[in-house]
Amino acid sequence: MASGILGKLSLRVIFIVLILVVAIHYLLTPFLSQSFQAGSDENPRVKLKLHPGGGDSEAPEYDWSSFTPYNPPPYTARRAKACFVILVRNDDLHSMRATLRQLEDRFNHKYNYPYVFLNNEEFTDHFKELTTSITSGNTSYGLIPKEHWSFPSWISEQKAADTRVKMKDIIYGSSESYRHMCRFESGFFFRHPLMDEYEYYWRVEPDVNFFCDLQYDPFLMMQERQLKYGFTISLFEYRDTIPTLWETTKRFMEQRPELIAENNLMGWVNGTDGDYNLCHFWSNFEIASLSWLRSKQYMEYFDYLDKAGGFFYERWGDAPVHSLAVAMFLKKEEVHWFEDVGYYHGPFYNCPNSKALNKFCHCNPKDSLHLSEHSCTNQFLALPNSS
Ligand SMILES: Nc1nc2c(ncn2[C@@H]2O[C@H](COP(=O)(O)OP(=O)(O)OP(=O)(O)O)[C@@H](O)[C@H]2O)c(=O)[nH]1
Ligand SMILES: *[C@@H]1O[C@H](CO)[C@@H](O)[C@H](O)[C@H]1NC(C)=O
Ligand SMILES: *[C@@H]1O[C@H](CO)[C@@H](O)[C@H](O)[C@H]1NC(C)=O
Ligand SMILES: [Mg+2]
Fold it and tell me: Which residues are listed as membrane-spanning (predicted)?
């Protein structure tokens, strides 16, 4: 009797347990298979961990000619001759460190590229200590020579001062130091002796943000694909800052036609009315070739602009200057949009829209400037390749 009841009870228990096991297995299957997938080669996050900065031989089968950010090369110990270059003041130490922290976390902790900090005043020991302490790459600190950060002999300081009064309602229009900065970034940073040993640079500013874990070495990518200029954000310049930059550039082109590339990018900057359409790459982010800036073409162009005086008699920015040089001297295939680099410099974002790229990021794709009419990036992408 007792055993009969127990037998019935245990049968019922076994039945319920069986149903529970089946139900739980059914419920958990998606999670189980997902965590299994996470261990497979298909998941790029795991791929990242398989190469924690150690591997030393490049997979020979990687084909750089078919590179896309969706198909990044495997990690390798190879490095380009490259550095970060940062023009910064001592006072910007803390916003600088916030940016360095992000640059290290998103990219450089695996690559350890060096940093070159430049300043028109001596860096303090405090600045050096607290920037070296947060970076994995070697750091060096350069003082800008006086002649790279002052009025050249042919510039009238009185006329420059009058300009700053006249332009006081334009952004940075009344600033003298901003003009030295723009001239320096246009014509001199790549000639600083600390830059001599490098072939590629990544320009960084204090207070910018990086949102995406980079899946490859952008310097090596530039080198392998023979790219000369890389950008994240493009937009339209304030016309009032560059009233005569376009005509000065056209005059230069007329005088030195042999320096202009055959299949150039002038179509990107030439407006339908033949005036400058104001499109430019935002130069606070650049990954680019130093030998390109050191070339005869670029140097002649810079000297021509410098003699014309617009850095001081107007407020020419290094962004339109670099961009017009890109347009004259490079082919479309030599210029690269880093769509996969999530980036913010107030007030604009670049943020990848595809899930395949955005999953490495923490930025909202909807914020990306390239989706708006304020960007020139789609016009750039629409240009035909030269070959
Ligand atoms: N050492 C030094 N660096 C400067 C000076 N002025 C600007 N910079 C740096 O030059 C770069 C560009 O200057 P910003 O003030 O950021 O100019 P911007 O990006 O056009 O404008 P905002 O970022 O909107 O202010 C940044 O890396 C600054 O740190 C200066 O007088 N001395
Ligand atoms: C850093 O500098 C030291 C000393 O100059 C040098 O030996 C080393 O190779 C450098 N490291 C990197 C990663 O460039
Ligand atoms: C701009 O385009 C016009 C035709 O629309 C052409 O005549 C002119 O030469 C171009 N200017 C430059 C600088 O490329
Ligand atoms: Mg800035």
Answer: 9-28
